[in-house]
Amino acid sequence: MQGKSWLLGAATACGLSWAISVSAAQPPALDVVLKPLAEDGKVVRLEVDLRIEAPQVEAGNTLLKAPVVLVGTPMAGYGAASIRASDAQGELPLKVVDEAPTPTGTYRRWTAARATHGDVRVHYGTAPRAVDASTRNGPLFDLRAEAGGIVGSGNYFYALPDTKTPYAVSLKWDLSGAPTGWRGVWSLGEGEQHAVVPAEVLSFSFYAAGPVNSYPPARDTNFALYWLAKPPFDTAALAQDTQKLYGFMSRFFDDASAPYRVFVRGNPYPAGGGTALAKSFMFGYGPGGETASGGDVQMLLAHEMAHNWPKFNADEDHALTAWYSEGTAEYYSAVLALRSGAISLEKFQKVVGEMVKGYYTNPFLTLSNQEAGKIFWKDPRAQRVPYGRGLVYFLRLDAMIRAKTGGAKRLDDLVLEVQRRQKAGEVVGLVQWREMVGGVLGEAGTKDFDAMIAGQRMTLKSDVMGPCFKVSEVKEQPFELGFDEMSLGVVSKLRKDSAAAKAGVEDGDRIVAMTKLAAARDEGLDMSLTLQRGEKQLKVVYPPRAAAVDSARIERVPAVAGSACRI
Length: 567
What we know:
Low-confidence stretches: 1-19
Helix content: 25-40%
Shape: globular
Mean pLDDT: 92
Largest sheet: 7 strands, mixed
Radius of gyration: 24 Å
Distance between the termini: 31 Å
Number of helices: 14
CATH architecture of the largest domain: Sandwich
């Protein structure tokens, strides 16, 4: 959906936990060769060759694993005969076993028909996913063809060892049959790359191959923005601004040398959104240039870059911890953008104001974290709960800490303390956070935390954001499109009590044209839909809003100079 970002990868919804590192004891090798096959100057298939060093898999045990469907998005879904394997004894027969579906996806395993001997070599390949205007929007996990090349996530095309231990990964691109000037890029670098990581990092990474463009154009930089088809915005300016903000953020989080890469691709349907994976982020845009809400690519990228750092490392359900990962990303995307000079006080006010509004107007505001998590992948509005909830909780917490310590400490101190503990090898999760908050604020801190976890509605005091801003209570009408915002080619999941339904919209209507979501949401415009129903075309206009609810508005205090804000 327009304005949607999905973070799925390390320590998030898929339950992964990994680190890019160098190991003292050399781990087993995992050699990867990716070969794009081209016809008439366009990639039509991606071939994958693996060498797994001595996996020692017993008969009946899993050699490889891959998603068939991930968060509603179909993957390559290799069949039983699509993967060939061999070892020191020759051909290695594989059997296919499908796991039971879970809320985040369905996985397929390939088990060894006999015990493996020595290194195992594996070969398979797939065409990119076919998409069109009716494709449902979602996390950017599929592999797509664009402008002669391919771009997408490794989740789509990989079947990899099902282990948590690190490998000495060697990744190479075979461009021997490709036109001159073609490039192969991975989230961790361009061309041949080596890293000590679990196999799942290969899946939860982005890839681009073909006539890839980048800014800066150099191929050995730690930061770059990549694209195939030229986006409808200034890529150089966006890359320069993003690089500066990323540098500020990485220094704040004491990780100044960390690499980062941004990938961009177009959607054939009118929606944007993005996904953060290993040291990288990809965002999409629609035919009309739709990206983040209001077209604010800068803040979308700021949010996703912030995801590189604050996170819990305890083995806990994503639904229970998303308030921390998403809340810190919301908070620091705005706060660090302001501190770095990337945005003005006026834009900061607007950005945070929209985040706060999103919290109070979410129909699932009072669900507990666990309850909201149960419907994350059924209703996109539930996915937004951790964003607003975490942001409002952190605004309150920062104010409470400043008041308790006379301004000597603030939220920064707690968040950076989490990171320091994790770097020292400690596990920090919900229990440890509650103890830390209690250590600073006493019972008031633990009570506030418990209330947030339970989904109790949080209020913001007028001076919660310091002297420069005031918060006032208002009535707001939540934006309500009336049907699935991730399917903007065909109407689906129509809400029967919505204004859209009352105006005559029906499930199955094909959407020929529509008012941009950003304009309808942010500018208060009516939604105008041109629909195709069988052989009949009709136009429907309605106000995409639900009944008014209690909300909050952030306003600038004009008598206070900007230099006194100290956000």
